Amino acid sequence: MSAENKQKDDEQVVNMANLRGGIEYASQWTLMWRRFRKHKLAVVSMVVVILFYAVAVFSEFLAPMDPEAAASRKTQHPPQLFELHFFDEGKFAPYVPGYTKKLDMETSKISFTPDGSKVYLGLFVRGFEYKMFGFDALQSDLHLFGPKDKEGQVFLFGSDTMGRDVLSRVIYGARFTLSLGLIGVILSVVLGIILGGLAGYYGGWTDWVVMRVVEFILSLPSIPIWLAMAAALPKDWPPHYQYMAVTVIISLIGWTHLARVIRGRFLSMRSDVFVIAAKLDGCSEPRIIFRHMLPSLASHIIAQVTLSIPSMVLSETSLSFLGLGLQPPAISWGVLLKGAQKISVIAQAPWLFLPGLMVVIAVLALNFFGDGLRDAADPYSNH
Questions:
Q1: 3-state secondary structure 67-97
Q2: CB crowding 101-118: b at 16 or more within 10 Å, else e
Q3: Which of these, 147, 156, 151, 88, lies nearest to 119 by C-alpha position?
Q4: Which carries the bigger pLDDT value, residue 212 or residue 318?
Q5: What is the pLDDT of residue 358?
Q6: CA atoms within 13 A on the CB side of 202
Q7: Which of 13, 65, 128, 199 is disulfide-compatible with 263, CB 3.0–4.6 A?
């Protein structure tokens, strides 16, 4: 082939690629990402979800106050967020005014009056000591923001009935609640893939046994089962034992729906040409399942995981709210909501319902994010 002909062939290939926009080189994940970007609400929700999990990961660094530090003279302190001042005497010096607590002996009503003091705030300040992720090597007292004086107290979102900072406790609670939902879904996905895959690939008695177990679990009312299993947990267990136990309880019930989906897809795929070709090529059964069949379901599994996390979050919140899930001193959004059960508390300190608002925002964001992933994974979607 002459150099001139070779150049013409190269130009023709380039022109064909330009005409087709390079789509023939796009992978499945690239096409999925392009469809996902068109779903604006899902993109915004993805950003919100990332922010929530970032708060959960770096909760010690982000919390301005010690979540366990109680102040008897600051109980039910109103939020100071809207009283945050950024300039003092013409200079940039963020502060919040100080208050003194007063109790009306006749009506038992708590009130706070300004006492003329100021609590100055700053970025990257020194505060209470903590161990990031529980490691001694990561011990520090540096915080993103908080009072410049270590002895200072600020309650941007108010304080609870024991004088503890609500904002710091909500930030700490995000780690337990969101990580429990994520870990619970991972365990459910592993069980669903293994059992559903075995049932769909082998069929026969394996399929019969797995499906009867699935139908039995689905026939049980979820909430009473959660309550019964959670009530059986020893109340004197440390928080991390309770955490793992609640995670396992939720996961043992949450795997059934995914197992049915995986089983159905495997039943339809095991007679496909690429599976038969892999068998004729001498591939082992684990390789056929994990190397050839599961990757074709990866996008669906990711969407299913994202849509399952909200139900896990709500399950943990419900159990802890009823006093059958995580127990103090563990801090989760459900545990915090349990402190807002009384109508009298909500009437005097409505900001204690802030964890409930966080649950609503997190669940909505995860649902919208999951919807966007599901639509992006579906090639017949209109998005």
A1: CCCCCHHHCCCCCCHHHCEEEECCEEEEEEE
A2: beeeeeeeeeeeeeeeee
A3: 147
A4: 212
A5: 92
A6: 16
A7: 199
Domain-wise residue ranges, the chain: 169-377
**Residue positions counted in the chain:** 383
Across the range 242-256, mean pLDDT stands at 80
Q: Which residues of 13-48 are buried (b: 16+ CB within 10 A; e: fewer)?
A: eeeeeeeeeeeeeeeeeeebeebbeebeebeebbeb
The pLDDT tens digits of the residues spanning 352-371 come to 889 989 999 999 999 899 88
Amino acid at 138: L
Superfamily of structural domain 169-377: MetI-like (1.10.3720.10)
Looking up tokens 């290939």, which residue turns up? 13
Q: What is the mean pLDDT of the chain?
A: 82
Q: What is the mean pLDDT of residues 157-164?
A: 89
The single-letter DSSP state of residue 165 is: B
**Assessment of whether the complete model's pTM goes beyond 0.85:** no
* Angle subtended by helix axes 166-202 and 40-57, to nearest 10: 110
Strands (DSSP E) contained in the chain are 85-88, 91-103, 110-131, 139-147
User: Do 215 and 257 contact (CB within 8 A), yes or no?
Assistant: no
Dihedrals φ, ψ of 88, to 5°? Answer: -130, 115
Q: Name the residue among 157, 180, 181, 152 with its Cα closest to residue 168.
A: 157
Kindly state the helix (H) or strand (E) to which residue 344 belongs, with its residue range: helix 343-348
Scanning the structure block, which residue is given the tokens 């604006």?
40
**pLDDT (0 to 100) of residue 164:** 92
